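Project channel, design review

CF: Before we commit to the Faecalicoccus acidiformans constructs, I'd like one complete example in the thread so the newer folks can see what an input/output pair looks like. Taking Large ribosomal subunit protein bL9.
RD: sounds good, go ahead.
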Amino acid sequence: MKVILLKDIKKVGKKDEVIEVSDGYARNYLIKRNLAIAYTKGSQKVLNEQLAQKAEEEKQLKAEAEVLKAKLEKMRLEFTLSTGKEGQVFGSISTKQIHQALLNQGMEVDKRKIHLDAPVSSLGMTNVEVDLYKGQVIGTIHVHVSEKR
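CF: and here is what came back for Large ribosomal subunit protein bL9:
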């Protein structure tokens, strides 16, 4: 029996996938637990419409991410850190501080998407990457750290 999966199921398939399973498994397990619906011309038509709508939304999200990327490329975030006599830096700039600085400038970026291997703890310019859209659109934030006077 052909079914359209409504959720991801281990070792069976992914959501919105059309698969062939035994009649008993489809009726007694998948359909009964609302994990799948029977495959018909009507259900296939609805699925195609949903997939087209989802693709359009994804396209729009990607376009918005491209616009945000262009804005981020032009920005330069300024931070200051205390330094010692021999140029030793005290403290560091974390993703939380970068996120807050972006919010202060009106940019809404998920803190978890800011890729920073280690907190910025050196003076000068550092480029920080931000995943704006599923690894396909990567923006760069220019972070400048100067000495506190």
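RD: helpful, thanks. The chain has a mean pLDDT of 92.
CF: Strands lie at 2-5, 18-20, 36-38, 76-83, 89-90, 114-115, 124-133, 137-147.
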